[in-house]
């Protein structure tokens, strides 16, 4: 049985959060600077006063943490691996699990983490799109297989089911808070996933990678 994630009821929406630019804002509930990542993005930080957040439907997010170094990061991917229909070298973006996992681990190692200490928590992979193609299930199996194959420590996971999730991750401590969303609250995330699936045959995009946020970097 997997470790149960921390959870709590979805709160009332906070009014007028302080924006920080480029998907960053001050979260009034947790009283911390927050980096919001979307599909194909990732963020890494060792700041104890910073949170990484995302919303997941069929997508999976891996939260990877080095407890000794006090640094962690989160990614957000939509498909397990590169499509055979794409030319070699094309579409090498972090929207794919194989690329997203490698890039996040490389970023953590470059920031001083050690591979043998890395602990992984996995979230998402819900079946939220009405289709015979279970993308969430494929993503979940890929993520679990990846952790096992790479010899990483699986610290916990919350995968599958029929609900979208909002994920709050504290990279310095490795703490993750998951909230299941009502369908209306997850409508935007599901729409974005449907839109992404319909454009898989179009020009691939490179995933955005947030740079390391140093410990002494303050919010603005």
Main sheet specs: 6 strands, mixed
The ordered string of helix (H) and strand (E) elements is: EEEEEEEHEHEEEH
| Strand order, largest beta sheet | 1-2-3-5-10-11
CATH topology: 60s Ribosomal Protein L30, Chain: A
- What is the percent of helical residues? 10-25%
**Low-pLDDT windows of residues:** 8-21, 86-92, 203-209, 211-220
Model description:
- Strands 1-2-3-5-10-11 form a 6-stranded mixed β-sheet, with no helix packed on it.
- It is of the alpha+beta class and 220 residues long.
- The chain has a single domain (20-198), classed as 60s Ribosomal Protein L30, Chain: A (2-Layer Sandwich), CATH 3.30.1330.
- 41% of the residues are buried.
- The protein contains 3 helices and 11 strands; from the N terminus they run E-E-E-E-E-E-E-H-E-H-E-E-E-H.
List the helices and strands and how they pair.
Layout: E1 18-21, E2 24-27, E3 32-36, E4 42-45, E5 50-56, E6 60-66, E7 71-75, H1 97-110, E8 119-124, H2 135-149, E9 153-159, E10 165-170, E11 175-180, H3 187-198
Parallel strand pairs: 3-5, 8-9
Antiparallel strand pairs: 1-2, 2-3, 4-7, 5-10, 6-7, 6-8, 10-11
